[in-house]
Write a structure and sequence with these properties.
152 residues, alpha+beta, Mannose-Binding Protein A, Chain A, 8-stranded mixed beta sheet, 17% helix, CD209-like_CTLD
C-alpha cells in the first residue's frame, strides 16, 4: 500500500498565508497604514518626515477614511493632512494631484478672507470632533502634528 504522505506533495505556496501588515506603531485601515506623529511642526516639516518614512501626508479619499482619522485620538488634536492650495489660491489639491471633492462646513476658506489670519494654504483636521466639523485651513508655518499614509 502507498501511504498518503507519498502521494500528496505539499505545496508551500498553498500553506503560506498572504497578508499585509503595517510597521510597528502604524495603524491599518483598508489597504493603507497610518502614523500619527508625536512631534509638531510646519506642514512642510510633516511632509518631509512622512517621505523619510516611505510615506506621505494623508490623502483622504472617503468619508469612511475621514471617520477613521477623526477617531485616532480621544482628545481634540489638530493634524496636518496632504491638502494645499499653495500653487494656486483657492484651488485645493491633494499632494497626489487629485482635486478636492470631499469638503466639510465650507472649509477650507482661507480665514474667511479676514486679513488677521493671513494666508491659509495648508489644511488640517481636528480629531475628536464630529466628522463634519473637523476640517480647517491654516498658515503652513503653524506647528501641528501630522498623519502619514502609505500602502500596506
Amino acid at each position: 500500500t502507498t501511504s498518503m504522505s507519498n502521494t500528496i506533495k505539499p505545496n508551500s505556496r498553498q500553506n503560506t498565508l498572504s497578508y499585509k501588515a503595517c510597521p510597528t506603531g502604524w495603524r491599518m485601515f483598508m489597504c493603507s497604514c497610518y502614523l500619527l506623529s508625536n512631534e509638531s511642526g510646519s506642514w512642510a516639516r510633516g511632509r518631509e518626515d512622512c517621505r523619510n518614512r516611505g510615506a506621505d501626508l494623508v490623502v483622504i479619499d472617503s468619508t469612511e477614511e475621514q471617520t477613521f482619522l477623526s477617531d485616532l485620538t480621544m482628545v481634540e488634536t489638530w493634524i496636518w493632512i496632504g491638502l494645499t492650495d499653495k500653487d494656486n489660491e483657492g484651488t485645493w489639491k491633494w499632494i497626489d494631484g487629485t482635486p478636492l471633492t470631499l469638503q466639510y462646513r465650507s472649509q477650507p476658506d482661507n480665514g474667511g478672507g479676514d486679513p488677521k489670519w493671513g494666508e491659509e494654504d495648508c489644511a488640517h483636521i481636528r480629531t475628536g470632533k464630529k466628522t463634519e466639523e473637523n476640517w480647517n485651513d491654516r498658515s503652513c508655518d503653524a506647528s501641528l502634528r501630522w498623519i502619514c499614509e502609505k500602502k500596506a
